Each structure stands twice: as structure tokens, then as C-alpha cells.
Amino acid sequence: MSKKISRRRMLQMLGVTAGAAALPVSSFANDENGNPILLPENSYPALDKPVTAIVCGAGNRGNVYGNFALSYPDKLDIVGVAEPIAIRNERYTKKHAIREENRFVTWEDVFKKPKFADAVIISTPDNLHYGPCMKALEMGYDVLLEKPISPSEKECRNILALAKKTGRIVAVCHVLRYAPYFVKLRELMQSGAIGEVVSMQHMEPIEHIHMSHSYVRGNWHNSKQTTPIILAKSCHDLDIMRWMIGKPCKSISAFGDLKWFTKKNAPDGSTERCTDGCRVEGECPYSALEIYYRKRQRNYVFDLPEDKDKQAEYVLQQLKTTNYGRCVYRMDNDQPDHYITNILFDDQVTASFSMEAFTSYEGRRTRVMGSHGDIVGDMTAFTITNFKSGKKEEWKETTDGHGGGDWRLVENWVQAVAQRNPALLTSTIDQSIESHIMGFMAEESRKQKKVMDIKM
Ligand SMILES: NC(=O)c1ccc[n+]([C@@H]2O[C@H](COP(=O)([O-])OP(=O)(O)OC[C@H]3O[C@@H](n4cnc5c(N)ncnc54)[C@H](O)[C@@H]3O)[C@@H](O)[C@H]2O)c1
Q1: Same domain, 20 and 130
Q2: The pTM of the whole model exceeds 0.85
Q3: Tens of pLDDT along 417-453?
Q4: Strands laid side by side in the 197-205 sheet
Q5: Which residue of 155, 229, 265, 419 sits 20 to 30 Å from the alpha carbon of 211, by its own alpha carbon?
Q6: Is the same domain home to 207 and 277?
Q7: Which stretch of 10-14, 340-344, 367-371 has the lowest confidence by average pLDDT?
Q8: If you take atom 3 of ligand 1, which residue's CA is the nearest one?
């Protein structure tokens, strides 16, 4: 049976064909938190055939990008997967009707086979981007590469050099560059709508439970095993500031620390795990029982059984065995929970950036100060004020996963690959590397307590 037929059948089974009442075409358009993803406008020409891609890492991001293929099978076809967690591998294979011979346990195995797709999507953990990316480029694949490019500056530069040498298309998943909110903000800043841009304040409120989930208990809790938080979380912010200001960064300084999520702050009566009879569990805002079991938030990390009746018991079991059930004050975490940087760009433009764990809200806050006006925004809307006329205008957007950037990024990348035109991308490896260098230098500044110059 040909791949096309079995794939179509699979989509039919999933109810994704046009007119399917139970599951409309956009049923897969949700990010890992269940937020709807804005579908990209169909502004590009139809493709003769879909771009074929192999996904390395079928976790959250691998699914967010892979789901684009289910909603737009004429644009992207996932033809291979490498994923060591058996249930994820199994589910992904089924979802995309991947042939048995194109299923792999680990990324290395993909490259033991002669090239069998147009491109590779790299959504493995941070410390496993470099290997598959270098191999993919060597073998002539185009690449969609999750951020951070790599936790090492040297590896970032090696990837850039090989991408240039091979001329392959490499898009870095700086999804905010594709979010309509930031696209509009940048357009206004660069068009002179507020005169000359003088300075910017940008803040990323991580939100306290998101912080505890990802950077205290979760995948990124240890900066040495993954990436320092300024890159893991905030390379998006450094990147978006650099991109909106449109001028190179000259120097950077940073302060920040892990203040709260430490053993010395563990309350009396707390236990190793929230499930161990902790006496303060009922009043703790970070209770794993409350977050994952009672409210069933962020359960996407658990690979839940399909049988809904078994899910609650399964989550409870996970809290007894994985880091997600551990007390936030007794983890082996080291990521700062507050981090500030001051940045000097070319032409005397300054910017300050704060990454804050302790907020009740998410959504980046940005203020831009210009010679003739200013802009104040929170990622759902911004207000632009003209100093002379006093006139205020508001711009509004429906918020969704990464402000609508996720699938717009995939759409642009697919078009760039299909048309062999990297100019369609706004997050090429060249453009993304600078903000990574800013992140590495911020971390050096924080540790050495000195201002660092940025040398590209
Ligand atoms: N662009 C964004 O906004 C954004 C958001 C979240 C995460 N990320 C980045 O995306 C990447 C993936 O994050 P995630 O949240 O999907 O994590 P995840 O843990 O859900 O997924 C990673 C997957 O890679 C698999 N994997 C591990 N070793 C592998 C190997 N040797 N070969 C193939 N697969 C392997 C894991 O089993 C896992 O399923 C990370 O680098 C992360 O920093 C980016």
C-alpha cells in the first residue's frame, strides 16, 4: 500500500478530512498547553508536492510542528521519526503513518540511512541539537532547528559555518519573530512611527507555576545538563529585542540568582515529595498534587494512557516516581528565578530586560521609547501614542501559542525549503546566532560580575 493512501486513511481515521464534523481541520492546532494556534494565512502559492521531513524528538515541540502536517498535508509530510520513548515513537508513527523502516530509536540511526527526505526537524533536548544538525547538513538535508541552537557558543558557530558551507536552509525556531504582534511592533519601530527609537524595556513574566514546572522540577532545572535559563527561556527575548531594534548589540551586563527555590526555604513539615504526606501541601502554591493531579494542568509531559478512566491514577503514580512530584524546595535545580540584563545597542540605543519567575501572569510586556512617541504592549495588545498630537491608537491580537508564531514559522520554513529561497525566512541561522551570543555573554557577565563586549 502506498504511503499516500495509508496516510490519507490514517487522517480519515482521525477525522481530519474536509467536512469531518467531529474533528475540524484545525483540531491539531493547539500548543502543548492546549492553547489554540492561530492558523497562518494562506498567502503562499500551493506546492506541487509537500516537503518531506524526518522528526528527531517526538516530544512536545515535535508534535506542535508535526501537527502542522496533519492540518496541511499538501505542504508538509512527516516521513520519518527518531524517538527513544517507545509510547511517543509509537503514537507519532501512527499519527503520521510513518513506514516501519523509517522509525528510529535515536537520531544517530536516521543518518545511517541514505538521505530519504527533504528536511529534518530537530526537536530533541537542548544538548542534542548539535549532533543531528551537523549530520543533517553534511548529508544535504534542510533543517528546522529548535532553539537554543546549542548550549555551547563554539557549537553554535560550527553549525553556522557548516550551514553557510553547504548552503542548506536552516531555520531556528524563534517563533516570536513570526507572531503578528511582534511583526507589527517591529514594523512601527522601524518605520519611524515613534520617531527615532531611543530605548526599550522588555519583561518576560514566566509565571510562578510555569517556572516551577520547567525550571525547578522539569527538563531545564539543571543549567549544566541543559542550558542556562537566559538561553533556554529568554533567547527568544534577546532575539526579539535585537530584531525589533534592528541594530547590533555592543555590550551587555547581567545580574540574577536562584533566590527562592532552595532547600533553605523548605517549610517545616514539607517532605521530599508532595505525595509523602507533606503537612503544608494544602497551602503551598507549588503543590504538585494540586497542579498535576487535582487541576490536571501540564499533563502533556506524562504521556497519559488513552483510557480516560486510568489517567488520574497514572498521574498520581508519576508524581510518586518522577521529578514532577518532588518538592520545589528540595530539587537539584540551579536556574536563576530572577534575571536582569542591560544592553547597549549600536547608535546609543539601550534596552533593559527582566526575566521574572514570580508573577501571576504570563505574556511579555514591552515598552518602547522614541523621540516622537512611545509604545506600551503586553503581547495581546499595544498602544502607540504620538507626542505631538496626543493621539493614541490600539492594536489588538487574539493570543495563542507563542502569539501565533508556531505554525507561521513552519509555513515560512516549508515555503523556503520548497522554493529554495532562504529569504522567505525571518529566523535564519545567521540572524539567530547574534542573540545566542548575547545570551552567552549575559551569562558570563552574571558570573564574572562585569560588562561584556559582544564580538560577532
Ligand atoms: N521554540 C520554542 O518556543 C520552544 C518551546 C519549548 C521548547 N523548545 C525547545 O524544543 C526542544 C524540545 O523541547 P520539548 O519541550 O519538546 O521537550 P520534550 O522533552 O517534550 O521532547 C524532546 C524529545 O526528544 C526525545 N529524545 C531524547 N533523546 C533523543 C535522541 N537521542 N534521539 C531522538 N530523540 C530524542 C525525548 O525522548 C523527547 O521525547 C528543546 O530544545 C527546547 O528547549 C522550544
Answers
A1: yes
A2: yes
A3: 999 999 999 888 988 999 999 999 999 999 999 999 9
A4: 392-396, 381-386, 373-377, 365-370, 197-205, 350-356, 338-345, 249-257, 452-453
A5: 155
A6: no
A7: 10-14
A8: 175
